Amino acid sequence: MSFLETVSTIIGFSMSFIKRHKLVTVLLFLVVLYTVLLIPDSSPQLPPLQRSDMVRPFIWNQDARWDSLEASFAMARSSGEEALRQPLENRLLNVEVILQGIETNSLPPTSPEFSELEENFFSLAPLVLPAALRRTHRR
Fold first, then answer.
1. Separation between Cα atoms, residue 126 and residue 76, nearest integer Å
2. Which of 9, 33, 61, 138 keeps 20 to 30 A from 16, CA to CA?
3. If pLDDT is split at 50, 70 and 90, which confidence band does 114 have?
């Protein structure tokens, strides 16, 4: 039994139909092949993880920072646009100065400049959203 005869038996079409409609046959074959390939493989068995004494779990431990950011956002949201302009510009300038210093120097990852950049960047975030929201609501 040829491949075409097998396919025609499975899908229920006669051989003459398949020979006359080769494009339909090819497309039908691709659909059947795709459907077969969609069947997932049995899930692989992963070895159990062994906890090492050297590995410590990550602890964010910066709740005070998040509380401070939330308070800054609430204050920025309730204040006017003019009151936001100067602190926003000052913090943007601080971030730019720190970035320029990082770009010109080859610093190790533990350099305090990166912590300072992170602090300034996070303190900038609560001011940006209220200012942006005011601009979009004004339009």
1. 7
2. 33
3. very high
CB 23 within 8 A of CB 30: no
**Token reading at 33:** 């092949």
**Residue 96 CB neighbours (<10 A):** 11
Are residues 91 and 32 part of one domain?
no
Q: What is the pTM of this model?
A: 0.50
Range of the domain at 15: 3-37
Domain check: are 134 and 70 in the same one? yes
The model's confidence at residue 8, banded by pLDDT at 50, 70 and 90, is low
- Cα Rg for the chain, rounded, in angstroms? 32
